[in-house]
């Protein structure tokens, strides 16, 4: 029974799929065609020049964008692409006579034919009116209050134009800025978009009129695969430094590049992220690493000098191995997260304990390179809840070639059973020790001490609850017997609902799968048989 449950050891575990880059090019190409087709009269509902003011013009290279009303069908958007809980919220507010729109990144993703991570709704209703509309609803946030509407197990975020208006100030009748030839509704929509971070997030979609409103030139930047701020990047990032990390996350996920001005400010204002509280940093890092774009996120964090602030231990690893800022090569850390990305997507995320466990494991093996057989037995023991005899027996029968290019792996040695068990237990102890070090401010502050020109950071944003959860992952590996009460996962199919919740057996299963595929990559097996 146990061996059938561990079938990933004896045969390939990853279902072949189209490479991420190819998928993006395909989607991006179709999106470009749709946007370019909008220039034809029957598709373009309306396009006008915009006098958005110098502040917005500077953020767009000094050229004020044209604002457009576009047919959503010609952009490839249909209402069936909207999640059911969001449709319920839209319909309920619409029935009460309020205007409702989808706004921000979800509109961008729909245009790119991608699955949005979530859907944000904005309405003409006051937040207190939204509260009256839904039985389970709460207002959160002080600076930027929004409503969390609970629809079953889902939460839909709803904001109000009136909230934006109070922050923005001004009167439509007295305002000289804004879109040319706009009416009051255009002005209100434009004013909302002006408060957003990046042009590609400054889009509104009316699912009833089937119109997309673009006041900030977002469609053009989607066509160019570009991320840049609506207002000048230096002002935008100083107003809200979380936009730096959000920009990295968007660029990594979509494969977009920063505009020159935005890239310059991401790099030169990277120190601003130290203003963010730990919970916000944890949230942003989880968005980067848990939703299918971890490898690209790590590369961008390193490229723009953010990694040494957020994860100085991993930054020191890059420096130690001569990994340059724009390096196209890979390494074991990036391979681990690349294999994680293959299993995840925006609508199939993992729990933070998985990526934190991967970071700790990699630090342990980079500090003390391991025999590939030891790592294999470690994965197997973790997967089956600590049954060491079974793990050792299967590890000895592995014939798949390991990746000799990884310096974290030592030369294979033929160990007897007792020695192999001891090595596996020692590896588990090393990982647990690293976990404690990664949450120790002094240790973190010393990570880059050998590189005095690099910024020194003692930032620790991992909460205690997450540390304890990851520690629990590795406690099953001990010399004697299986962990009490552990029921090993059978089969290789991932239960994504349990994975997102941090179910211990599911996280262990996926962790073991990722590490095993990194040590014994399928490509080596295929090349040997050719």
From TrEMBL:
Q: Does the keyword RNA-binding apply?
A: yes
Record carries keyword RNA-binding: yes
Which InterPro entries does this one have? Answer: NT_sf, PolA_pol_head_dom, PolyA_RNA-bd, tRNA_ntf/polyA_polymerase_I
Q: Name one GO biological process term.
A: tRNA 3'-terminal CCA addition
Which residues are in the Poly A polymerase head domain?
100-227
The tRNA nucleotidyltransferase/poly(A) polymerase RNA and SrmB- binding domain covers: 255-316
Q: Which GO terms describe its molecular function?
A: nucleotide binding; nucleotidyltransferase activity; RNA binding
Report keywords, A-Z. Answer: Nucleotide-binding, RNA-binding, Transferase
Question: In which domain of life is the source organism classified?
Answer: Eukaryota
- Its signal peptide is none
SUPFAM superfamilies per the UniProt record, alphabetical: Nucleotidyltransferase (SSF81301), Poly A polymerase C-terminal region-like (SSF81891)
The family note in this entry says: Belongs to the tRNA nucleotidyltransferase/poly(A) polymerase family.
Checking PANTHER family in the record gives: POLYNUCLEOTIDE ADENYLYLTRANSFERASE FAMILY PROTEIN, POLYNUCLEOTIDE ADENYLYLTRANSFERASE FAMILY PROTEIN-RELATED
Name of the molecule in the record: Polynucleotide adenylyltransferase
Organism per entry: Erythroxylum novogranatense
- Write the lineage as a comma-separated list: Eukaryota, Viridiplantae, Streptophyta, Embryophyta, Tracheophyta
